[in-house]
Write a structure and sequence with these properties.
Blueprint (H helix, E strand, L loop, with lengths): L5 H21 L4 H16 L2 H9 L7 H11 L6 H16 L1
Helix pairs in contact: 1-2, 2-4, 4-5
Length: 98
């Protein structure tokens, strides 16, 4: 995805988000889906304002640090990525407390 234009990255991101939502509708306890969705929201937070605005215009929810934290917390112990989850949560909690 590194070499794709921003609009195409966003369109693909919307598809990923829709697939994750469907996976969580089928199994709300799916740790892997929560992990990926937590990372999705975490990456959205890093985008510049203009790109986040473009994402919003095509239907990708803006998401907050609380959304990322909630999904990462739900993935603990069931995603197979506990070390990475811990690191992401540390960074998010640190940023939220500032």
């Amino acid at each position: 995805m590194e070499f794709y234009p921003v609009k195409e990255k966003l369109a693909n991101g919307k598809i990923v988000k829709e697939c994750l939502d469907e996976a969580l509708r089928c199994n709300p306890e799916d740790g892997s889906a929560h992990y990926i969705l937590g990372r999705f929201y975490n990456e959205l937070l890093k985008l510049p304002w203009a790109v986040r605005s473009m994402a919003s215009s095509i239907g990708i929810p803006s998401g907050t640090a609380d959304d990322a934290i909630r999904h990462l917390e739900l993935s603990k112990g069931s995603s197979g990525h506990d070390k990475h989850v811990g690191l992401l949560l540390y960074k998010l909690y640190k940023d939220v407390s500032l």
